[in-house]
Amino acid sequence: MGQAGCKGLYQSLLDYKTEKYVIAKNKKVGLLYRLLQVSILTYLVVWVFLVKKCYQDTDTSLQSSIITKVKGVTFTNTSELGERLWDVVDYVVPPQGENVFFVVTNLVVTPNQRQDTCAESERIPDALCHEDSDCPPGKPVVAGNGVRSGRCLRAGSAQKGTCEIFAWCPVETKSRPVKPLLGEAEDFTVYIKNFIRFPKFNFSKTNVLDTRDKTFLKSCKFGPKNPYCPIFRLGSVVSWTGSNFREMAVQGGVIGIQIEWDCDLDRPPSECNPRYYFNRLDNRFSENSISSGYNFRFAKYYRDAAGVEFRTLFKAYGIRFDVMVNGKAGKFSIIPTIINVGSGVALMGVGSFFCDLVLIYFIKKSNFYRDKKYEEVRSGHQENGKVTVEPLQNLQAVEA
After folding, report:
1. 27 pLDDT exceeds 90?
2. Which of 259, 244, 249 is nearest to 320 (CA)?
3. Lower CB count within 10 Å: N or C terminus of the chain?
4. Are residues 364 and 249 in the same domain?
5. pLDDT for the residue numbered 367
6. Sequence-ordered list of residues with C-beta below 8 angstroms from that of 290, at least 6 positions apart, any chain
7. What's the confidence (pLDDT) of residue 117?
8. What is the pLDDT of residues 172-208, one digit of tens each?
């Protein structure tokens, strides 16, 4: 008995088993099945392969380097600074050129500051006082300019004054100019050079035209006809964000310049081109909001004939430019192709499963089709030492 069982198991390993199908002559379900097949095939070909290009291996680990250089000069004549020529060294921070740079467009200047005692600004709430006890000596003024000396300074017979402080005096008291000091910065230009590399495919490129013409960068301007000219006019960059340069130059702002590389490496390298997007990133919709604009302070230091240090304080308003780079590259690979084809074949099986549900559960003759699809068997009985199975029904082509 044991040998017979082992022999039967061995012989069964060499059997080939195939499925038995029921062909349902139902036009409605047949039409539904073909529609599902066409829909799945269309999704697979159009969306998966043509649009998403899922037959490609992709690389999103973009390596990028950015070099920026601003050019332009302007002339101003103010009471604080007198006649002055401004070049890139004066109005660009930082001067070495990175993916973030700031162009000064407006200034509040406080000249000839020296370390001394003077009255704190009335615009600082923590500096207001009624008597000397309100100004504890040695304690700094919160959000102020110096350290309290212990005296409350009042003008005339006024009951309210401000604390005397030890600081760089006189402190900044002027308000932001209504007209931008460097309004001519609208015509300045910025050179943005971008190197990119996709390490998986060892593919490199730059956004500058590969040419031997040394005058190219001095004469070209970025535009639809010159996508490989990386010279951008600042006024044009701001206008592409939907903003007005003169209005933005008064209190400053933040501009995002996004360079996107979407490269299909199955095509020639010349078709891998950068795309530029320009957006304003600060809160431009609330002009009177405390969060609007962009500014910071810096100072230039000097020494007089006696060797005493003094400085000129600048509160700079301007436009900050953030250059961001992202992208991906794709190239044909057999592995993702096989995976996505297999997924499409599996979806075809889902269509068959759905039509089976409709056929045996949701149409009028569902019981009839259910009986034809599923074969019932009685429990086996032994005849001459063999087990036989009696089918109730055979699976065959049926018509409604």
Report:
1. no
2. 249
3. N
4. no
5. 78
6. none
7. 96
8. 988 899 999 999 999 999 999 999 999 999 999 999 9
Question: Per-residue DSSP letters for 119-179?
Answer: EPPTT-GGGEESSGGGS-TTPBPTTSSSEEEEEEE-STT-S-EEEEEEEEESPP-PPPPSS
CB 77 within 8 A of CB 71: no
The pTM for the full model equals 0.77
Q: How far is CA 188 from CA 89, 242, 252, 320, in A?
A: 13, 19, 16, 14
Picking from 98, 163, 152, 132, the residue whose alpha carbon sits closest to that of residue 321 is: 98
Total domain count, the chain: 2
Rounded Cα distance, 102 and 182, in Å:
13
Q: How far apart are CA 276 and CA 325, in angstroms?
A: 9
State what percent of residues in the chain have pLDDT above 70. 87
For residues 25 and 345, give the distance between their C-alpha atoms in angstroms, rounded to a whole number: 24
Range of the domain at 40: 14-55+333-399
Q: Which of 240, 216, 241, 213 is nearest to 230 (CA)?
A: 216
Q: What is the pLDDT of residues 199-231, one digit of tens each?
A: 999 999 999 998 889 899 888 999 888 889 999
Q: How many H-runs (helices) and E-runs (strands) does the chain carry?
A: 8, 20
